[in-house]
Amino acid sequence: MFTVFAAAFFAATVIPVASEVVLAAALADESLARWTLWIAATAGNTLGAVLNWGLGRFGTLYREQSWFPASPSQMERAEEWFWRYGVWTLLLAWLPVVGDALTVIAGLLRVRLSVFLILVGIGKGARYAAVIAGVDALLF
Questions:
Q1: How far, in Å, CA of 140 to CA of 132, rounded?
Q2: Of the candidates 95, 96, 101, which has an alpha carbon nearest to the alpha carbon of residue 68?
Q3: Measuring CA to CA, how many Å separate 105 from each of 27, 55, 116, 125?
Q4: What's the total number of domains in the chain?
Q5: Structural contact between residues 88 and 32, judged by C-beta atoms closer than 8 angstroms
Q6: Spatial CA neighbour of 69 closest among 106, 19, 41
Q7: What is the pLDDT of residues 86-101, one digit of tens each?
Q8: What is the pLDDT of residues 30-54, one digit of tens each?
Q9: Structural domain span for residue 46
Q10: What is the Cα–Cα distance from 41 to 8, expressed in whole angstroms?
């Protein structure tokens, strides 16, 4: 359970972790309830996105550092999406590459944390539900 949470958390940051693979492996253990694995993955990935939001909100001085969770080109693309479609783009925070940048941009643009948590949580929760459904379809 903790492994799924940690993998999902780090996957939302600059650390390259395939949280879907970790979740799929955990699903093979039938002693673990699927809903608890879904909660662990969703909570971990959403909290990782909160870290990105915080870096955007409070860490703009570090934008040019190599460890910053989004490159300048990712930030530019995400900012264009954000201005075009608004906070609803946060439903897509689960996307590879652009998703991390969207969460940083949300912090830079001072999106309220409550709105951020709801939209990011919905998107990431839907992604992990799809992973669980896909693994179940393959296994059963």
A1: 12
A2: 101
A3: 33, 9, 11, 21
A4: 1
A5: no
A6: 106
A7: 999 999 999 987 898 8
A8: 899 999 999 999 999 999 999 999 9
A9: 2-139
A10: 5
